[in-house]
Structure prediction request, 541 residues.
Amino acid sequence: MKDMMPNFNLVQPADLASAISTLADAGENGWAMAGGQDSLDWFKDRVKRPTTVVDLSGVPGLSGVTETADGGVEIGAMTTLTEVENNPIIKEKFGVLAMAAGRVASPQIRNQGTLGGNISQDARCWYYRSGLDCYRAGGNTCYADTPEGMNREHCLFGASRCVAVTPSDTAVAVTTLEAEMVIAGPGGERVVPASEYFIGPAIDITRMTVLEPGEVLTTIRIPGKWAGAQFSFEKVADRNTWDFALVNMACAMKISGGVIEDISLTCGAVECVPKRLTVVEDIVRGSAPNEETANLGAGAASRGASPLNYNHFKIPLMENLVRKAIRG
Amino acid sequence: MQKKFSSNRYDPQGAVRDDVSRRHFIKGVIACGTVAGAAGLMTGCSDSGDGGSAPAGSAERLISINVNGMSRNVDVMPNETLAHTLRNKLGLTGTKLGCDRGSCGACTVMIDGTTVNSCSILTHTVRNANVVTVEGVGGGNGELHPVQTAMIEELAPQCGYCTPGQVVSGVALLQRNPNPTREEVRHALAGNLCRCGAYNNYVNAIVKAAGSA
Prediction:
């Protein structure tokens, strides 16, 4: 027998304006729920205790895929991961996102979980998830970055008191595709590039994205820039299903005349934000996508990494995934 | 259970659909309550101020949901998962709860033909959808679905706890893809854990059922 999660007021608005005003009124006690695949776990564990939960599933206009004039696509934030995985336009033009969506969790979770929710999901550090009063939870210590802390899954880069990493597969893909996030809030709409949407602990240790209370991510806008490029997505996890990445890698490459004309390479689960590997991109651009170029790029990938006690393995893993992405 | 109806959350006029009489509705809900039995212990655990008034726009508690082709009237708390409603209020205990965290797939049901973990979805979000549980995949008079028959023939279950979830995942796959490859079957069942490790038997059964479904 299982007990129930603590009670809350469930609000199911029928339009975006009332969703936003309800969330804005509730402030820190409000919770925007998309597919609910992470939300309900938080509530059941009594780690997050919102008093007002706004279910976005009944808000019209937040799901679906439409092509844009610049050859890109706009994806509603409430589009399920299964729909993203199987959408013919995304598969044809931005395959890396379809591949990433298909590697998230399990079929049941992809059927209910949404792209917006997956991109914006919270950290998976188990000290944080189990309700300890760590920095990310508003406390004044980190349990993972200690001599005995279990930090095998934690970060190589960008630690700032907190050492949690981005757990999302699709966040890495949309960063590679240089997507823009359309955010609706009480003050109107704003558009934030993926490179600024995800934030690390140095900017705000309690959040993973720039979303403020009362704001809702409505659309993921993918520009035409990388349409039809050569894509690859690789995820290494302890289990093939359900599990979060130890390291994942999304790559978009344009090959012309036998050389890499342009490349966008993003690595996940090594920093609190998806890590765009611009150093590697600069090294391999203009070279043939062969073993030698791949080795040069791989050697630069982990430059500046500060591994914790138990996550040194992520350095060669990351380098190998870069090698594989470039060499094919 | 009677106490709940005196709460000002319940507006008798607004709650009742045209085609359902109020008396019927409440009788149905009370009957559900007796099925719940010991579940009162759990619904009582909420520390929410149950008597307090809900803000405007809050979900109505007395709802009808479509389960296995039948419209069922039920009193659903805002924080109630579909698995809880099915098992403790509608008596559909074929749906199992394993981890209650969306990891194991034992509670898999179909919502409008796609599989979801019923432990990880609020009942209020499926009011307008068609829910199919393991009780609803076969024929009306106890006839088994070809997937169920094949699982018996292939001795697929060992302890059987994950079987309802495996059946639902298998049936959903064959509905959208009547002739899956072995790899496609493995992919479709990837969200259903089996602690006995009988994965191959389940895959064998669904491959076999695909021929007869």
Chain A touches chain B through 37 residues (CB under 8 Å). Residues 65-120+165-225 of chain A form a domain with the Uridine Diphospho-n-acetylenolpyruvylglucosamine Reductase; domain 3 fold (CATH 3.30.465.10). The CA atoms of residues 280 and 301 of chain A lie 6 Å apart. Chain A has a mean pLDDT of 97.
